[in-house]
Write the structure tokens for this entry.
Amino acid sequence: MRLNEDADEQLFPGEGGSDLQGIGLLRSGLKLSHLRMIVAIEEHKQVSAAADALNISQPAASRMLTEMETILKAQLCERVSRGVALTAFGRAFARRARTILLELREVDRELSALKSGTGGSVFLGAVTAPAISLAVPAIQQVSAAYPGIEVNVRVETSNVLARELLAARQDFIIARVPDDLNPRLFNVTEIGIEKACLIVRKGHPLAEKPIVGLADLPHFDWVFQPAGTLLRRRIEELFIAGGVPLPATVVNTSSILLTTAIVCGSNAIAPVARDMAVFIADVGAQAGEISILNTDFEIDIKPYSLISVKGRALPPSAKLLYDLILQRSRMLSPD
């Protein structure tokens, strides 16, 4: 969009000019705390929430916003009904600020690795199924070959992970691009289709039934992922398409541990990734005392992908894990 390009050019003119604008901004008082603040405002959409995230008072946050607008000679925010929205200038500044903060984080990671003699660290996010089938084996390979690499893994929904990726909290993710985010922000390589199933406790009234249909399901309590998540929506679509009432009693959680605990202690039903269900069922411990229902319908979820941010190079340790996960996905592909 031309408006954003114009804002970029006015805030950050090219280096071909006689004045290096970046040096001028620093001389005018621009600080790292300002960069963190504009990124926090973009994420939280409220000055008060941004202040809480940075552990400062709201008056201090408002003062910093005024300082930034004075230094940049541009309005960065405007008030809306439920908080603040960044202007074109604010979005341009936030985008550049996020890149600068990311580069500083990478400097810290690289220097720490050099000082300690280790292989660096990786931040990976994944939805449940590929976390089990792809991430774990690849991490085991990396750990065996490069014991100095530290791998940080977060299992969450795609909605959460994609935003953490944009915020530079993850190097890359195995997930899906949410519908409300611009896919042009990402590099996306599709690597697999997630299959799900329904789990119940051993001894559940439906556990011994040879075939379970949709009509058998609404009378029980359910444990769902939060509203709007792909697996939740897919189950709801199946109920609606089959003309079956949606479950009346529902517990919402993204925690597989809590899901399993509720299922094991009640007659509740829960949809989970099949890879996770098989893993839990095979454990055999008390928390794994579950059965997988044999349904007369399939639960296929939208394909998941390896996702990184366009224009953001992966650190060497993250690229190594990325390539191993991609290689393993091709080995498991039926094609």
The two ends are 39 Å apart (CA to CA). The chain has a mean pLDDT of 85.
